[in-house]
Design brief:
- The chain is built from 5 helices and no strands.
- With 118 residues, the protein is mainly α.
- The longest helix has 31 residues.
- It is globular.
- The protein has one domain.
- This is DUF2752 domain-containing protein.
């Protein structure tokens, strides 16, 4: 349902039907999730390069979520315990550190970091 809303809402056109990021709207900073609607829209249209431009870490997070879902389904179908990346000891800390670093790096107003600002 959400993918259909993004597909038909076209977040790449300014002033469209889909809402803008509230963090960017109210605070004027780019949050770690900014650009995800446009990235998902680009992925739905098969444009991986544009999706990575809008939010590279978000695209990687979507891939990791798909892998996690796949291992979960495989565990249900086979009945055996299958360990995924999310079962590793430091995976939660690593994800948190990557999100914090992405938040900081996207808001540095100096090139080449400013090119990550969407």
């Amino acid at each position: 349902m959400c993918c259909a809303a993004i597909w038909f809402g076209d977040p790449t056109t300014p002033g469209g039907a889909l809402p803008a990021c509230p963090t960017k709207f109210f605070l004027g900073i780019t949050c770690p999730g900014c650009g995800m609607q446009r990235a998902i829209y680009s992925l739905l249209h098969g444009d991986l390069a544009a999706a990575l431009h809008y939010n590279a870490v978000g695209v990687i997070a979507l891939a990791l979520l798909l892998v996690s879902f796949g291992t979960y389904c495989l565990r249900l179908w086979t009945g055996r315990r299958i360990r995924g990346w999310h079962n590793l000891r430091w995976s939660a800390v690593a994800v948190l550190l990557v999100v914090i670093a992405w938040f900081v790096v996207r808001n540095i107003p100096v090139q080449p970091f400013w090119s990550l600002h969407v």
